[in-house]
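Run log // design_07
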């Protein structure tokens, strides 16, 4: 793909911007796209377009909106290969991953929410002593601000847009400035699917400019954000004067607990995938593994040997398992944790700083890193406490069930965890005590969109899912009618 220039998408039209940001291909380190450096003026235009579209869109029947959402799913699916290629080039992930996971999930998001809200029921009560009937209604809220991250660009953007517009809202979206291309391609597909102008708008730029303008805008009453905890704290502060409704899906420091009775044949492969999928750039990735003493040495040996088979290289190559990290700055940050681990007495078993990474010539300036395994760290070290968001996993041993639970809970995050055991009673005991939003047992990242998703502690506020997204993107009203 040649270098492209992205335009803001406002009111169904593409509008050029005077100033731009460079967007790099992480696999080569070269600029491949130019992104609008938007700010308050562009956000104001987008909000106006969304407000103008809201009365008509919100008055459509749920079935009418469902029909359009299904058309959107169809056009995404029809353009799957082109979108997968662009997602890989923009984010650094293997094309095979984008083709298998990212774009199909974007299709699924629209198909799921096209019908999910058709099967809800309002509540009602009868107050006999007062001779009155109460019932509830749900109404769309208005213009939503949707701010999505760079790790799963179209996947997570559509997980916001689909329920938002299915519920009857309109929106102003700000994708990450690192990965804006597929949303721009998606905007073209919205026109092709017949979505009315102004229902979905895209304003591109940085968080401090475009993102801040969205969060502070008095005519945006609802904000959905996926990203870092520090940014979320700023969003809470900036939105507080207008008492905005917030959904914040934030970071994680996710543990896996491997008991001595675990099925290691299954566990090893899934644990490796959970640590290094998408270069470790998934908020749900496992970054801490606690292994019971009796199988610790066996687990380490097998985990290391299996990790050595991971192929890091050109994302376009079908044999590649891991691509490039998203940016030069992020790569430097992640590598900094390896240096920190050494300073804290950790042992680097394989990966960065101990093994040589060989790349094709065209990728030598890309932002690549080997999957890295660290042992011997104290639970209070930076690598055990902070979200790294890269291909680094720390492995420790434990003795008792309660010890594993306490250590797994010993961080400020609480997004997800996985438990590996063949003892179903142990599974339930441990799952109930883990301070996280999701617990997977003998699996990882098995998602059912009907179930609530989100984190506790510093991993977020609110939940997403069928009922949960309906709750977030609508307001309930109670109507009381006295009939006697």
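design_07 sequence
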């Amino acid at each position: 793909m040649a270098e492209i220039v992205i335009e803001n998408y406002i009111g169904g039209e593409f509008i050029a911007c005077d100033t731009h940001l460079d967007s790099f291909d992480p696999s080569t380190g070269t600029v491949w796209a130019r992104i609008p450096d938007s700010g308050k003026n562009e956000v104001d235009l987008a909000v106006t377009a969304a407000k103008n579209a809201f009365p008509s869109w919100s008055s459509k029947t749920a079935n009418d909106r469902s029909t359009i959402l299904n058309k959107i799913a169809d056009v995404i699916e029809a353009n799957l290969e082109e979108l997968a290629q662009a997602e890989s080039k923009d984010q650094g992930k293997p094309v095979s991953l984008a083709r298998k996971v990212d774009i199909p999930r974007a299709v699924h998001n629209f198909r799921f929410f096209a019908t999910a809200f058709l099967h809800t029921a309002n509540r009602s009560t009868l107050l006999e002593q007062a001779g009155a009937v109460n019932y509830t209604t749900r109404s769309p809220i208005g213009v939503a601000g949707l701010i999505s991250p760079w790790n799963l660009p179209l996947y997570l953007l559509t997980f916001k847009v689909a329920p938002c517009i299915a519920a009857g809202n309109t929106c102003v979206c700000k994708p990450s400035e690192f990965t804006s291309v597929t949303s721009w391609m998606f905007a073209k597909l919205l026109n092709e699917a017949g979505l009315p102008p102004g229902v979905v708008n895209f304003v591109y730029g940085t968080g401090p400019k475009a993102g801040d303008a969205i969060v502070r805008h008095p005519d945006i009453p609802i904000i959905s954000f996926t990203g870092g905890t520090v940014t979320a704290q700023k969003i809470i502060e900036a939105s507080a004067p207008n008492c905005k409704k917030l959904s914040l899906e934030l970071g994680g420091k996710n543990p896996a607990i491997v008991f001595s009775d675990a099925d290691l044949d299954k566990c090893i492969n899934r644990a490796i995938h959970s640590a290094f999928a998408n270069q470790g750039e998934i908020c749900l990735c496992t970054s801490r593994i606690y292994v019971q003493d009796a199988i610790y040495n066996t687990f380490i040996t097998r985990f290391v040997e299996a990790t050595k088979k991971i192929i890091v290289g050109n994302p376009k190559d079908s044999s590649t398992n891991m691509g490039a990290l998203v940016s030069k700055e992020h790569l430097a940050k992640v590598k900094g944790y390896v240096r920190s681990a050494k300073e804290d007495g950790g042992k680097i078993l394989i990966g960065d700083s101990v093994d040589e990474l060989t790349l094709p010539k065209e990728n030598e300036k890309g932002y690549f890193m080997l999957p890295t395994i660290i042992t011997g760290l104290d639970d209070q070290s930076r690598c055990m406490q902070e979200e790294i968001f890269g291909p680094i996993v720390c492995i420790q041993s434990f003795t008792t069930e309660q010890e594993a639970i306490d250590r797994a809970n010993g961080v400020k995050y609480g997004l997800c965890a996985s438990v590996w055991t063949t003892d179903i009673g142990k599974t339930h005991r441990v799952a109930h005590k883990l301070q996280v939003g999701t617990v997977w047992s003998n699996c990882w990242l098995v998602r059912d969109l009907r179930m609530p998703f989100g984190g506790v502690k510093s991993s977020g506020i609110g939940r997403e899912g069928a009922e949960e997204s309906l709750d977030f993107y609508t307001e309930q009203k109670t109507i009381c009618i006295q009939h006697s």
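The mean pLDDT is 97.
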